[in-house]
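Incident log, support desk, overnight shift.

02:14 A customer reports that sequence design results differ from what the structure should imply. Their input is reproduced verbatim below. On-call engineer (initials T.W.) acknowledged and began investigating.
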């Protein structure tokens, strides 16, 4: 049975941007519908299912406070849940990206000022691959038969990737993305690659990531902070570290920016696993750090069976404290300490204090 090509929807009030997006999406083998305002967008969403929707935030050229794009995203989430939505806008705040990702379920957030055709095509490819698979037969007289087949093939998960640890690379430089992806693939990871804060945050919220490699500067600009008068608050990559920390994902920073104070702050406040400077990047050193991070994650996962109080007792034991010292530190009785240690030993399958301490050494890498 013959079906129509996958549909994409462009919701954009600027005719020039409409033309650019339609051209790229058509080249990706999609049949594109357009809407320039909220009412037209709602009509299109009701009329047929879409595989992709690219939505501008403001749909009124004379009103900078117009956020009708968010209403479109909400409507798409409710009316067409299998549609992957992409917010493309010139209003590029991290707060807006977080809102779009968390409250409206967008696939990613892209800035118009840093728009790149090649990167946009990559985003479309990943969005199509992540969408629920739709079995489709395209007639032989369809001009874009091969292109559609290619994107449909990407929607099928390679069984050889099942069970692999996932690594996330957030890097806006294509050359560095290629280098890091190659190294992490060789290290046995299933790699997710993206170029922006929005994409990175999206992956962290959608998938179980075992390791993250993050650049601090994700706008394609100069790598010299002093030239741009930037602080850590201005760096999208730095702000992404808060999300990896909250998710418990070991994170390696590979960047060309950062003063010693900023690097210290990344370690102290965001608990990054390592910081590597691009100027002195060494493949062997990077792979060793990746190996150490993997060991630390495995050890941390092993300790996750402990309760919060057991973990406190365990950490103090690892510091060499006696039962009496642990009791005084935690303001509990020595009998309570012994009871917690008995439980810790059973859960970690060890029989001595030395063996338990060895688990802590393995955790710290």
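02:41 Re-run completed on a clean worker. Output:
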């Amino acid at each position: 049975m013959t079906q129509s090509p996958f549909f994409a929807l462009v919701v954009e009030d600027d005719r020039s941007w409409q033309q650019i997006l339609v051209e790229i999406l058509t080249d990706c083998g999609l049949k594109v519908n357009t809407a320039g305002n909220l009412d037209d967008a709602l009509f299109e969403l009701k009329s047929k299912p879409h595989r992709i929707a690219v939505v501008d935030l403001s749909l009124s050229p004379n009103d900078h406070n117009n956020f009708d794009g968010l209403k479109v995203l909400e409507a798409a989430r409710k009316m067409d849940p299998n549609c992957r939505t992409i917010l493309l806008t010139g209003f590029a705040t991290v707060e807006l990206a977080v809102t779009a990702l968390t409250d409206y379920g967008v696939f990613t957030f892209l800035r118009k000022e840093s728009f790149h055709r090649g990167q946009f095509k990559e985003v479309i490819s990943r969005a199509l691959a992540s969408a629920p698979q739709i079995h489709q037969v395209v007639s032989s007289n369809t001009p874009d038969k091969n292109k559609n087949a290619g994107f449909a093939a990407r929607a099928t998960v390679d069984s050889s990737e099942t069970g692999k640890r996932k690594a996330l690379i957030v890097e806006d430089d294509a050359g560095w993305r290629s280098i890091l992806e190659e190294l992490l693939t060789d290290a046995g990871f299933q790699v997710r690659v993206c170029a922006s804060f929005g994409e990175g945050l999206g992956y962290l919220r959608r998938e179980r990531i075992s390791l993250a490699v993050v650049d601090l500067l994700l706008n394609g600009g100069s790598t010299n902070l002093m030239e741009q008068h930037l602080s850590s608050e201005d760096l999208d990559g730095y702000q992404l570290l808060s999300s990896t920390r909250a998710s418990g994902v070991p994170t390696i920073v590979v960047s060309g920016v950062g003063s010693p104070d900023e690097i210290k702050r990344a370690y102290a406040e965001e608990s990054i696993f390592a910081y590597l400077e691009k100027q002195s990047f060494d493949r062997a050193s990077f792979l060793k750090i990746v190996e150490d991070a993997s060991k630390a994650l495995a050890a941390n996962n092993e300790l996750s069976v402990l309760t919060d109080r057991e973990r406190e007792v365990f950490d103090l034991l690892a510091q060499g404290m006696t039962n009496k010292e642990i009791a005084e530190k935690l303001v509990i009785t020595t009998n309570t300490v012994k009871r917690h240690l008995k439980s810790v030993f059973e859960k970690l399958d060890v029989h001595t204090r030395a063996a338990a301490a060895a688990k802590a050494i393995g955790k710290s890498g």
